[in-house]
Amino acid sequence: MNIIISIYKIIRAFGRKVKEDNIAAFSAQAAFFVIISFFPFFMLFLTLIQYFSIDPNVFKNAIYQLFPDSIDQMVIGVVNEIYANDSGTLISVTAAISALWAASRGILGIVKGLNAVYGIRESRNSFLLRIISAFYTLAFSIILIVSISILVFGNQLYHWVIQKIPVLSHLALVIISIRTIAGLLILTSFFLMVYMVIPNRSTKLYREFPGALIAAIGWMGFSYLYSFYIDNMSNYSKTYGSLTAIVLFMLWFYFIMHILFIGGEINTVLSSGDLVYYMKYLFSHRKEISLEKKKAADQIYMQEHPKKGNIPDKSSKK
Where exactly are the transmembrane stretches of this chain (predicted)? Predict the structure, then answer.
């Protein structure tokens, strides 16, 4: 029974921290900037795909795997229009740079949110930060292409390995047989990179791994449940009409951003020794402590645990 009570208190304390960090507001802000930069990002992304000579039909198959069923038709429509307007030629270098610069606004939104989650004040120059965001946008585009190559071109890669490197044929067969796990590993690596390089601080890989893994599982699980809900239980088409696809895409991306920031919060909680001491103190008492009595609670804690040091006043840091 005590374990259940402790778990409940941990969840409640975590929920309070999420609320205090305004995760919902930052999720909406990041989702807005990402959606605004969606079209220029696709211009850049499809340009890179053409450099890799990827068939548009194969790329569409990847979209079916990565997006919920209610959203993928809208995304494929964007792909068809960009490919049709491209007339089989690559966009110019100037257009690619412009698309990259505009798409970096989405990364900037994530930067602000993760800095707030980790309690970091942004000290980088705004122009330099924009350049860094553009660089990470390009890097994430390349990672996405590699992910599509593994998830969609699995059989082709397997046959290529058999022909070129036959000694690795058994390993390649195992990897192809566990594509779902491979997709989970790719998403985990993606979130791990986000948590390590985007916030304005240095960190260790092992500190960011738990949140990255949970965020990857959350992405895959939520996309499946969201797709199931839309297909079987929702009446959005009656409410929004022709705007249904856009509204569903915005809602899906908002919750994906929420999952991203929740992963960052998990990393913060697990890596904060002070917070661990504070939660241990809370869980050792059955009486609930209100926020108004926090200072009095800290004084009691200092009397009972004089060697642990001061519990930092979180409100004083803000």
Answer: 23-52, 90-115, 127-153, 173-197, 209-230, 242-262
- What values do phi and psi take at 86, rounded to 5? -75, -25
Distance CA 57, CA 63 (A): 10
Please say if the pLDDT value at position 27 is more than 70. Answer: yes
Q: Which residue has the tokens 């991203």?
A: 260
* pLDDT digits 0-9 by tens, 39-96: 666 666 666 666 656 666 766 776 666 666 656 676 777 667 666 655 444 455 666 6
What tokens does 145 get?
Answer: 């292409």
d(CA 283, CA 152): 48
pLDDT in tens, 104-117: 777 888 888 888 88
Torsion of CA 38, 43, 47, 50, to 10 degrees: 80
Of the candidates 108, 106, 112, the one whose C-alpha atom is nearest the C-alpha of residue 22 is 112
Token readout for 85 is 């307007």
CA separation for the pair 64, 222 (Å, rounded)? 15
Residue of 39, 79, 40, 86 whose CA lies nearest to 57: 79
Asked whether 312 and 278 are in contact (CB, 8 A), the reply is no
3-state DSSP call for residue 233?
coil
